[in-house]
Amino acid sequence: MADELRSSVRSMGTTIKETAGQMADSTKAAADGLKNRAADAAEAVQDNYGKALDVAKDGAESAKDAAVAGHDFIKKFMDENPHTTTAIALGIGVLIGYTATRRT
């Protein structure tokens, strides 16, 4: 009877040891998979950040180009039409003065 009990305890110990080993292997595999997914996610975030940065740079460059083109157009218009420019400035000044002194 004692031999059977020892045999059963050894068998149970072996089973527990094997199960613990399998669980450790499964846990390690899951951790490795999670680490790989985290690395993939980090890479995707870096790629998207780079793309967003490029788009922002392009947008800023386009805005700068539009501002320079608008300035050049107005400067050319003022150089070619000084009397019209003076009349427009006078009209804007009158409107501002009227609006500022108007009482409600």
Mean pLDDT: 87
Order of helices and strands: HH
What is the percent of helical residues? over 70%
Count of domain modules: 1
Instruction: Count the DSSP helices.
Output: 2
Low-confidence stretches: none
Account of the protein in words:
The N and C termini lie far apart (111 Å). By secondary structure, the chain is an all-alpha fold. The chain is built from 2 helices and no strands. The protein has one domain (2-101).
Layout of helices and strands:
Blueprint: H1 2-80, H2 82-101
Summary keywords:
104 residues; 2 helices; 0% strand; rod-shaped
Short description:
The protein has two helices and no strands. The protein has helices spanning 2-80, 82-101.
